[in-house]
Amino acid sequence: MSEQEWLEKLEQYAEDTLPLQDRTELQWRLNNDEVFSQKAKEHLDFLKTLKAFDERKKLKTELEGYHRSMTSEPATHEAPQKETKQIGAWKKYWPMTAVAASVALISTFTTLYLTQSLEKDQKAYYKELGRRVEQIKKSQSRILADIAESKEKATPPSPVPANYMGTGFLISPNGYVATSYHIIKDADSVYIENKRFGSLKVSVLISDPGKDVSILKIENDLFKPLTSLPYTILASESSLGEEVFTLGFPREDIVFGEGSISASTGYKQDSAAYQISVPVNPGNSGGPLFNSKGDVVGIISGLQTETSGTAFATKSSVLLQTVKEVPDSVSTSMKLPLNNSLKNLTRVQQLGKWKDYVFMIRVYSDPSKN
Amino acid sequence: MYHFDELIVSELRKKNRDVLRELYKTHFPMIESMVCLNSGTVQEAKDVYQDAVIAFHERVQDPDFVLSCKIKTYLYAVSRRLWLKRLNEKKRFYGKIEETETFLEIESEMTDIEEKEQSFQHLAIALDELGEPCRSILEGFYFNGQTMDQIRDKFGYTNTDNAKNQKYKCLQRLKKLFFSSNNKNHE
Fold first, then answer.
1. Which residues of B are less than 8 Å from A62 in CB distance?
2. What is the pLDDT of residues A339-351, one digit of tens each?
3. Rounded mean pLDDT, A62-89
4. Mean pLDDT of chain A
5. Do B24 and A308 touch (CB under 8 A)?
6. For residues A181 and A361, is the Cβ–Cβ distance under 8 A?
7. Domain A127-370 top-level CATH class
8. What confidence score (pLDDT) does residue A115 get?
9. Which residue has the higher pLDDT, B172 or A107?
10. Which region holds residue A25: left if phi is over 0, alpha if psi is between -120 and 50, else beta?
11. β-pairing, A189-194 with A358-364?
12. pLDDT at residue A76 above 80?
């Protein structure tokens, strides 16, 4: 039998139309003739590509059809005449041209609008992410009711609901918490709260308004110092594109966000911050930004208002500098974590551990002062 | 996990064209705005979107395929990558398109799509180089389901065996053209 006949049989075999007797013969050769079986495989693969090629072409024509029907163009007549081709093409494409033109128009006006508002108000560009409860009181009256309710049970009863909220996290096993300065700047008293530790009173130990970093100390006697923290605070700079994550309290529940480092400088080329592509909301401020190993690389600070999805985080190296400025008497008792026990865990396991060390920060201040 | 999407997948496997059409219409506006907001035109949006839909449709035909993300996510992530690649080729773009949605296997998916695209391009070139009547014979038999007897009559062969011989020679030549251009590219 010639090669040609064998391959013909092979094609029938692939389509399941080969008579039984021939099939056994072919199978025998496939099993015993290695050169042939190699060739057969190549042949069938090629036929598959050929078939797929054809199917793709047909699918493409079909999609074109859907598209035309979508842009409200009646189906073009089959086999258009050569002479009418140009007019046909114009007819076929005018809805798209119209759409393209209107898109161009809209984007022109949007650009005009944006550039104008840019000149008007540079301030609108950067927004701190603390959560002013008053502003959202109407939409979230239920949450406030919750706060009031929990106040009744809380150990240190407070006369007014917190009027500013943010996020913070432990940086030392013996009760030091890092957060953003802008959250606690007008505070009379500050409480932190999470599921594991409940509500604890803290005092503001040191603040650095320029870097937007503050360190708080847990005052409550109920807090027993931990033996260690499972993560460390990186002194080195993270690289562009590194995956980063955050946990924070944009609402009453802890919320996870992920993204990557988009730039190694922050708002207006601020070298003390990163630009990140993590979705953040008011209330995320002060939250930890950590890398895939679970180590702290930054603190969420703010976002750029005109471009969606652009947020900023203060670098962890800046946080460490601030820690160094803590007065000596205190810093002797402040232990920074040295070992990371999270790096080999999956993300979900890491988050499970991490969330114990992230706190919601409630800031109470005298409303008459504002 | 994605109950409704899985229903769509099972219909696409049955080659249900109505479902495909609805799927196509549903997600086009999303890709259109993504491309148009990132220095593209509606026409270009259509091109990348169709490529993504085709890739998805082909992927679904694989019996081992399991849906690991929403169809919408797949279409968005693949379209986004295809568009970035095209922008890169045109050197028209220096920014970044926000990656709002993606899925785990996107990298291998993109390599796969690219390889397929290349091999189809080579096949198209090979078919063009093949010339007539070879091309029509092969297209008739393999694409349009004509029998060898029909082909014999259409091309005026004296008997079916002659037609088969001719088809065999044509296919061998096409293979040779295809693999030589494929190899050239890999070197």
1. 17, 20
2. 888 888 888 888 8
3. 60
4. 77
5. no
6. no
7. mainly beta
8. 62
9. B172
10. alpha
11. antiparallel
12. no
**CB neighbour list of residue B87: distance below 8 Å, 6 or more residues apart:** B38, B39, B40, B93
| Tokens, residue A324 | 């160094």
Nearest chain B Cα distance for residue A6, angstroms: 11
Q: Tell me which residue of A162, A215, A214 sits closest to A193, measured CA to CA.
A: A162
Across the interface, do A103 and B123 touch by the CB < 8 Å criterion?
no
d(C-alpha A187, C-alpha A202), whole Å = 11
pLDDT at A333: 67
Q: What are the tens digits of pLDDT across the range A94-148? A: 777 777 778 777 877 777 666 655 444 444 456 666 666 555 444 444 444 555 5
User: In Å, how far is A299's CA from the nearest CA of chain B?
Assistant: 22
Q: What is the mean pLDDT of residues A179-190?
A: 85
Please give the residue of chain B at the shortest CA–CA distance from A63.
B50
Tokens 């493409």 belong to residue: A60
Determine the straight-line distance between the first and last CA of chain B, rounded to whole angstroms.
44
Distance from CA of A70 to the nearest CA of B (A): 7
Partner-chain contact B46 A67, CB within 8 Å: yes
pLDDT at residue A370 greater than cutoff 60: no
* Per-residue confidence band for B50, with pLDDT thresholds at 50, 70 and 90: very high
Region at A283 (left for phi over 0; alpha for psi -120 to 50; beta for the rest): left
Domain ranges of chain A: 3-69, 127-370
Walk me through the domains of chain B, giving residue ranges and CATH numbers. 3-104 (1.10.1740), 109-186 (1.10.10.10)
* C-alpha–C-alpha distance, residues B187 and B185, integer Å: 6
Residues in a beta bridge with A225: none
Judging contacts by C-beta atoms under 8 Å, the chain A residues touching residue B53 are 63
Q: What phi, psi does A278 have (nearest 5°)? A: -100, 130
